[in-house]
Task: structure prediction
Amino acid sequence: MRLHYDDETERFRAELDEWLDEHAPSEDQMRDRPLSSAHLPDWARRWQRTLFDAGWLVPGWPPELGGRNATPVQQMVYFEELSSRQIQRSLNIQGLSIFAPSVIDFGTEEQKQRWALPVLRAERATCLGMSEPGAGSDLAGLTTRAELDGDDFVINGQKVWTSGAHHADFCLCFVRTDPSAPKHKGISAVLLEMTTPGITVRPFPSFVDKAAWVDFNEVFFDDVRVPRENLLGDLNDGWRVANTSLAHERGMLWIYESAHLDRALEIALDDAGARNGGQRRHSAQLRDTLVDAYVDALALRCLGYRGFAKLSAGKAAPEHLLLKLFASESSQRLFLDFCETIGVEALDVETRPVEMRVDNSWPWMNRYLGSFGTTISGGTSEIQRNIIAERVLGLPR
Ligand SMILES: Cc1cc2nc3c(=O)[nH]c(=O)nc-3n(C[C@H](O)[C@H](O)[C@H](O)COP(=O)(O)OP(=O)(O)OC[C@H]3O[C@@H](n4cnc5c(N)ncnc54)[C@H](O)[C@@H]3O)c2cc1C
Result:
């Protein structure tokens, strides 16, 4: 079997390649590291703005939203090219992949102008107020309250794990607006300025944070007044916004995850060959590790393409419900196996600013510890298994 694209698609790829050769940020520029997922160094703002202006930020969207009405296949090629060059479109991923698309899907024209466009143009960065101390996997159990008082909502409560909140300008916040309704039905989505009086942001480091990089925050709301016009979607319809938000771009993100696994495997192969005069390559344990990762990487790619082909033909693609779990756990397995193979050397944990690209010299233990971010955020592996059991295999709850 040979997988290939038609000539027109390859021309699209060539046009993108040429553009990237000319405009992509240099290694040197990227050395100015972000301090969190909502901190945008000047070069990152300029880069995202350049993508927006040229219609390469979200190719599937129309030009006024930073796109060029690209077909689904062209969008896939776009993600293939960016991921193979290890280039991110935005350093504020939650802004580009969740916040802006949610406003575009559910917002009024005014909301799109005020909240989505500045985020797409990298003038503003965002955070997501979903999880709470008592509501993570069970997001519908959230208790942060918003009560209508005249033309304002008054918000009280607490969020946690809010990535980048200390550098964010805007927040998409999920609040309980009808405590008497069944829990999924009493939630609303509200757009907030992070400078609104009554919001306290408290950053806290995690054990895998690197020097200068702190991403997690607790966010407290004490009588925070937000105009009613900041409601996104209908009152008490926030559950639909939350579900749509998390589904955005899932269909394409596996390409990044697959490229990430390929890259980790490449580094593992280099590392295995480089040390001890190549002896490690001949350890049976390491050979198993590398072959397993190679097979995983190939399977991931094939699953992704198969799902994409089904979706493009208007069919259901249960494969795509497996990809997040499979990609995150395959990388984690590779990192752990590699740590075990290199033994005590793996304890050499390093604290350095976060890398924009997967860096060859990042210690394996850092990779392993860091990989839990991907098996937890956006729905833990256990929750993914529940989803697969119920929606793909048809098992009872
Ligand atoms: C890197 C990272 C970035 C994040 N960024 C944000 C952010 O920007 N904004 C935000 O709002 N949140 C963010 N989160 C929080 C994330 O959404 C939650 O951590 C996640 O939803 C899990 O919730 P929890 O931590 O409360 O764990 P819990 O839901 O308490 O789960 C604890 C354990 O129980 C298991 N479990 C729970 N329910 C079930 C079940 N029904 N069946 C089987 N097992 C179950 C889980 O799998 C887990 O192992 C981030 C998390 C990470 C790791």
